[in-house]
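Researcher: Structure prediction, please.
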Amino acid sequence: MAAAFWGFFHSFNASHSVKEFWLRAMGDGFMKYYRLAYNVIAVLTFLPILILLLLLPDRILYHVSAPWSYLMIAGQVFFALLLLAAVFQFGILYFIGLRQVAERPSDRKLVTTGLYGFVRHPFYTFFLLFLWLTPFMTVNLLVVYLALTIYIQIGIYFEERKLIREFGDQYVEYRASTPALFPAPKFMRNIWVLRFVLKPESSDKV
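Model: Predicted structure follows.
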């Protein structure tokens, strides 16, 4: 329940309508700090979930034995490094929210190369792979992992609405040709592109 509330709260505050409300209420000066404050609050409000993970009764669902557990841990390290690479390619200062304090949003460039040439949200991809490669699983961990997985799907929906408003057709074309989380076979990409060719008006209904 706590994880679900955390996901709803932060998806709600990432929505365009909520940001528009704060923009009208507080002005441009306040919005420069919005992402930074959002990230700080996200971290602080996730701490109770970690505390509950330790305090609530729990039960082990499975525990992968060696040597397979070593391979899973190695995979976690690998995807953690890729996650960091994706954040740095995106722009770590922008990701944290510090760049917005000193720079206008219009100065931002859409990143479509490197890791972002394979998927639109590589840090979500590598974060999910990192989570689900955990070599042991408990009931509490499973609940949190499922909640975070659902939260990411909801977060992508709101984030892409914002990106289309920010970059327009450039992002619509990028979304049509690049999978969201996992690289797709070429024939699947062609089906996705064909959908936008046949129904171009769907990209405007966001």
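Model: The two ends are 29 Å apart (CA to CA).
Researcher: Thanks, that helps.
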